[in-house]
Amino acid sequence: MSRKRDGELADLPDHALLSIIRIPEAAKQSPWALILRRVIYAFVLLMFVTIVVYIDRAGYSEDLTFIDALYYSTVSLSTVGYGDITPVTQTARLINIIILTPARIGFLILLVGTTLSVLTEESRRALQIQRWRKRMRNHTVVVGFGTKGRSAVSALLADGVPANQIVVIDTDPASLDAAENAGLVTVRGSATKADVLRLAGVPRARAVVVAPNLDDTAVLVTLSVREIAPQAMIVASVRESENQHLLEQSGADSVVISSETAGRMLGLATVTPSVVEMMEDLLSPDEGFSIAERPIGEDEIGSNPRHLADIVLGVVRSGELYRIDSPEAETVEPGDRLLYVRRVFGEEVKNR
């Protein structure tokens, strides 16, 4: 029974997911602006029909002036149809069938557009969700949009990850609203359920950040993510260090212990506050200094990373990090990546 329930969300049609998946859009226009736009569309359509009728004015029951053509178009499009002016020639009647009838339908749609707009909006959003589910690849999924999740998203955005490439999973409506306002795609539901993870595109994700408030939830989510996304990078956060091995056994590639990290920072702040200030600067990608990773240049191959222009902290080789003081980091090899301190000043900070 549980397997059947897990597959229910994934099997739902796209229009049934409107309350679950939300894709940010540009700021919506005010109702008055929408009404004005519809009035303009109706006026343009009315003038188009008037011109068509006036051009074929000889085909009607009387010779029409432009005002007569406008009058006929108005009563015809509004379906009032007084009958005082009628098409009498074959050409005029054919024009009424081919042009005026579709225009009359369009005009009615504009008049009753409030109700139809709701239906159109839902259909458009359903189509948008359908396209998103088909096209989303190599994105980052963030489970939990609390303090840790928001900080993770801020770091991703500061490092140049587009907002539309980040998907947030949460159950709290306020957190989901905050994520949507930040331009992120949101999925409402518990990330411990495989069908919710599939809706977020976890099987095709590049990385998953697991940042719930409870450690046991983090373990369950990590197990579920690893089961359906064997190739994804999983970065998880726990409060207590004794739960680190549980997350690693569940499939997390990297585990951050929030309580110990905060504790070390607090301890350092009492002895060397300037060190804490610099560490916070390094961990904030938009503050002047940041720790970043880059590929090596062709002219850097064979060099000692200590002698490069950048302040190098380590060498990443075949997915493994070698600190600058290790023997493996004595020489830079082709395909290596450098972990270094990046300098960001002035306009560069603003642009990023």
Automatic annotation (TrEMBL):
User: What keywords were assigned to this record?
Assistant: Membrane, Transmembrane, Transmembrane helix
Q: Per its UniProt record, what SUPFAM superfamilies does this chain match?
A: NAD(P)-binding Rossmann-fold domains (SSF51735), Voltage-gated potassium channels (SSF81324)
Q: Name one GO cellular component term.
A: plasma membrane
Would the keyword Zinc turn up in this protein's UniProt record? Answer: no
The answer to keyword Membrane applying to this record is yes
Membrane topology per the record?
Multi-pass membrane protein
| Organism ancestry | Bacteria, Bacillati, Actinomycetota, Actinomycetes, Mycobacteriales
Q: Gene3D superfamilies per the record?
A: 1.10.287.70, NAD(P)-binding Rossmann-like Domain
Principal localization? membrane
Q: Which GO terms describe its biological process?
A: potassium ion transport
Question: Could you tell me which residue ranges the RCK N-terminal domain spans?
Answer: 137-257
Q: Where does the chain cross the membrane?
A: 38-55, 94-119
In Swiss-Prot or TrEMBL terms, this protein is called RCK N-terminal domain-containing protein
- Protein species of origin: Corynebacterium deserti GIMN1.010
